[in-house]
Amino acid sequence: MELNGGTGPIKHMISFGSFMEVYKADKTFRIRTPDSVDPSNSDPNAPWLVQDTAAVGCAHPIVARLIIQSRRFLKEVVVTRKIDDNAALDILHRAKEGLLACEAAMLKLHKAVHTIVDAVDAEGVRWSKDARAINPFPHVNDLEALCAEFLVKANRHVRTICDLTSCFVDLDRKHSNFDHLHKELEAKVGPDAPLTELVALNREFIRRIVELRNFEEHKGESRTVVHNFDLGPAPDYPLVAPSWEVQGVVVHPREDICRDSHQIIGGLLELTEWTVIYGVMLWCDPRFGHYVVEIDAANVDAACPVLYRPAFNLHELYEKPADTAE
């Protein structure tokens, strides 16, 4: 079969059970075998299915770090307990798809804001002749709906990270709350385990995402407030970019929407990749001296920008015996 589109050769091929994804640097294809099309094997002529599923490939950091990088840790690190690689890869595929969708919502939000900013940069704001009014004042249409779409997808990814954690630790129940997840990890693997510490350090970050979303949908004693373009203080009256905050019993400070949403995407990506790294390394076989290597920025492959790789040191296990005295 031919895979039409994209630039350059196939870089990676990864099976996700009922289908395989094939990655070029800038394109993702999904391939289904005749067995998956016809599980009963009743039709000897069942076709292969090839789908062009995304205009991004392994050159995209989300694909590279959640799929290519994570698979390497899952497959190459020797562990002392069984880790269901296939279940982890299924969840990582969901994480990759969800975070790409979250990024797409972010980009749509940013485009709506930056279109207004670019127009103001080019033409300025329109003051009336007596300098008493700005008409029309810059305004992003459907800003609250755009923010809600982003926050829904970001909040959904939080639940995916909790599901991913269960691939490495036998949790008593499914979690969507990092405070509860942290307590169970403390009990199961200890407070000093890197995976436990990772969850602990990110509790406030995750709580803010969840509460921005929850108080946007369920307004009560606390509510998410989305501010459109506004004017700063006199006498200059600078144009203030759209922002959001949580007001009421629960308070989260007012932040620039574009800057904050970009940081949320980056934080969720980093948290997901380290959940895999710490989850695998939690059970690494000490005989093999496994450790994590951070790839130097100058050596990161632009066509597949993974940042970390597993390594091992067999020096002690296979060290040549010292010469014995005669």
Outline the fold blueprint.
Blueprint: E1 12-15, E2 20-24, E3 27-32, H1 34-37, E4 49-54, H2 61-76, H3 85-123, H4 143-165, H5 178-189, H6 194-201, H7 203-217, E5 222-227, E6 230-231, E7 239-240, E8 243-248, E9 252-256, H8 257-281, E10 291-294, E11 308-311
Helix pairs in contact: 2-3, 2-8, 3-4, 3-8, 4-7, 4-8, 5-6
Summarize the structure.
44% of the residues lie in helices and 15% in strands.
Q: What are the segments in which pLDDT stays under 50 over at least 5 consecutive residues?
A: none
The geometry reads as: globular
Provide the residue-averaged pLDDT. 92
How far is it from the N-terminal to the C-terminal residue, by CA? 67 Å
Explained architecture:
- The structure is a single chain.
- This protein is 44% helix and 15% strand.
- With 326 residues, it is α+β, with helices and mostly antiparallel strands.
- The chain has a domain at 84-274.
- A 4-stranded antiparallel β-sheet has the order 1-2-3-4. Strands 5-8-9 form a 3-stranded antiparallel β-sheet, with helices on one face.
- β6 and β7 (239-240) form a beta hairpin.
- α2 runs parallel beside α8 and α3 (85-123) runs antiparallel to α4 (143-165).
- The radius of gyration is 25 Å and the shape is globular.
- The N and C termini lie far apart (67 Å).
- The model has no long low-confidence stretch (mean pLDDT 92).
Top keywords for this entry?
single chain, four-stranded antiparallel β-sheet, alpha+beta, 326 residues
